[in-house]
Amino acid sequence: MTIISPRSLSPAGRRERAQPSPAPRDARISLYRAMLKIRRVEERIQALYPQGDMRCPTHFSIGQEAVAAGICRNLRREDYVISAHRSHAHYIGKGGELRAMFAELYGKVDGCASGKGGSMHLIDLSVNFLGCVPIVGSTIPIGVGASFGAMLQDRSAITVIFFGDAATETGVFHESVNFAAVHGLPVLFICENNLYSVNTPLDVRQPANRTIAELVRGHGIPASRHDGQLVETVDAAAADTIAHMRDSGGPALLEFITYRWLEHCGPLGDVHLGYRSQEEFDSWVERCPISLHRKLLEDDGLIDEAAHAAMDAEIAAEIDDAVAFAQKSPFPERTELSRHMFA
Amino acid sequence: MINRQLKFAEAIHEAIDICLERDRNTYLMGLGVPDPIGVFGTTRGLQEKHGKKRVFDMPVAENAMTGVALGSCLVGMRPIMTHMRLEFAMTAMDQICNQAAKWHYMFGGRSKVPLTLRMLIGRGWGQGPQHSQSLHAWFAHIPGLKVVMPSTPHDAKGLLIASIEDDNPVIFFEHRWLHNIHGPVPEGHYTVPLGQPRMVTEGDDVTIVAASYATIDAIKAARELERQGIKPEVIDLRTLVPRDDTAILASVRKTGRLVVVDQGTLTGGFAGEIVARVTEQAFGALKAAPIRVTLPDIPTPTTRALSNYYYPTPAHIVAAARRTLGLPHEDGWGGIEPADKSLDVPDKSFTGPF
Question: Do A179 and B65 touch (CB under 8 A)?
Answer without folding.
Answer: yes
